[in-house]
Target: Peptidase S9 prolyl oligopeptidase catalytic domain-containing protein
Amino acid sequence: MVTGSGWLLAMSLSLQAVAMTAWSQSSNHQTASLTIPQVAQGPKRLITTDDLIALRDIDSFSLSPDGKKFAVLIRQADPVANGYRTGWFIGSTDDGALTSAGDGGEARLMRIMTGRCGGDLVGSSSRWSADGQWIAYTVQRNGEIQLWRSSVDGKIQQQLTHNEADVRDFAWSEDGRTLFFTVGSTRSAQRAREEKGGRDGFPLQEFQWFTEMVYRATPVGPVETDLTVWAVASDGRDERPADAAGKKQFEEGLRRGYSWGRDYSQTMKVEDFGGSGAPPVVGKNGVRASLVRVDPSERGFLPKLRLTASLRPDGSQPIACNAEECVAQIFSKVWWSPDGKQVIFWREEGINFSDQGIYSWTPASGVVKPLKRASGDRFKECELLGQRLICVHETRLQPAHIVSIDTRSGRTSVLADFNPEFKNLRLPKVERFEWDAPPDTVRLGYSKRAYGYIVYPPDFDPNKKYPVLIAPYGAQGFIRGDVGDEQPMLVYAANGFVVLDTAFLLPLGDMGAADGDTLYEKMFSAEHGFPHMTMLMESTMRGLDAAVARGWVDETRVGMGGLSQGAMASLYALQKLDRLSAVSVSGPSLSQIDVYLETSYGAEIAKRIGGGVKRPEAAEYWAQIDLADHMDSIEAPILMHIADREAIGIMRLQYRLSDARKPYEAFIFQDEYHQKWQPAHRYAIYNRNLDWYRFWLQDYEDPSAEKADQYRRWRALRELQCLNPRALRAYCADNNKE
Model:
């Protein structure tokens, strides 16, 4: 459920990770330590949900000052303990050899600048001592976030601070003998405030969302910005508030460790996404590279930016790069070559930013050269090391790993693989395909072409008819579970489905030019037929049509589902079309209740960062797109996996579905957010989604005894579906549609 101003933030956050503050919430169980096993080559087998849930992810990456080593924080889900294993590793940039550097502590949830959490997990950054012998980082353990360090040989892991408040940011002194860090309110002060509110009541104006009251009645405030600087010796002694000189060293230390993104001292705003809020990048002899808006009048959060440079330390006589490659809406990173003669830049490009390009620009001559381009694959973090880039990389069939890219030849080689078990999995064939997008009727700036990937089942036979599952949202990086990680696409394929991993088109033109209110008004204009919802639905269906034209799609066995806009498009398709035979979503369709979930204070906070919008209140407006008002249009059974904080959004829908005797099942997950973060929950959703689609589209029931009750319920739902005149499949003996 994306409500109020949340729709704009959800769109922007799906495009680019931004600088955010870590807020922590641990699972209820401790997990074993994380290891990277040695795995011998063996016979290949099909992938399962057990393989997918146990993937090791890279949460943090940094290079040592001399470039000889990298540090990574690895995270692995444990659905049995409902927690995460985490661990720090030091790797060689020559051969990728890994050394364990200690436990990473409890997994933490990411908070955006308003203080709200969407369910994304975040790891601590690591910062290197000047001599390259230590990394410093934060660890959450037992509800506290403290500063730690590890030696690069893995022999020492040491807690440095024992502060009464959580550590927020940190920096090394230039000589490496001191670490400076910031803290906010003490944990005891925060507990006292909650206890007082629990006794006396919290003022309504402290809440941003009414869902906070329904869930726990404790307000979530914006990220605290009134911080205090402290200092601690690098061996953990003498922890104390910093004096004026120490505060200055902290600022200088942050600048030394700063490489890209926003100015750390400024509050991130929506319009800073894409790199427009980044300060100049300084190279040898003081040369500078900057991003400037092509059109200063653009008011959107992804304006077009142009790369510029100055070969003078004072920034005078700027040189604009006039090549087409030097203009983009998202620049992921910019570097200077070691000799200060070339600017290396990494930008997002292609349909819906489906591609990435890394280029070099020589300001003195104006020459721009492509160094590396990736389509579908994703570089998630990169650092320049001489003539090489060391990057966190994903392909469509390989989860995150560390690679080295030769900037002269473009050759990529794997340095470190954190999921060696994958080499013994029989993974499917994947094919990119494209199609013409629907007309951009109100000129929002959608691409004229759309794209996706066909994930084929094993032993695919083009002469057969196959059930098809559509995951309609992301289509970038490793094929996992689409946005929200609830649709185990590779496992679907392993179980006989053709999967269409398609990407929603985004209104990139107006996302650069228009403010939030104007953009929303055009995207969700009732007068123009709700252009954004229509674009998402029709573009996805055109992708399905492109697959149907190949001759192997069973059009009576098509399923679709997803999170957020993925749920919105799936349910809108149920309302408008008769194309689906099963749906699984993580939330309801848009409805009038969305208008009232954000408090006036929440709207004010969102407006400060450029994310607030004003929505219509009229019931007549919402009745046009709320599935609860279109029961007669529903042709397929619906499965819902709802976060408890968002459960209020399905009130009308579940009531109307029950009253109309439509087949549906809904599950509510405790202590969850927009994206489910708890491993046990994601594992349960993986398996139930697989069972759901196999039941409705393959007529298959898992014989496991523990699932007997599930299938009893679903067989009863099937009896209801027999009564549905819009059903595409014949489920009962007296229904002769097939």
The chain has a mean pLDDT of 90.
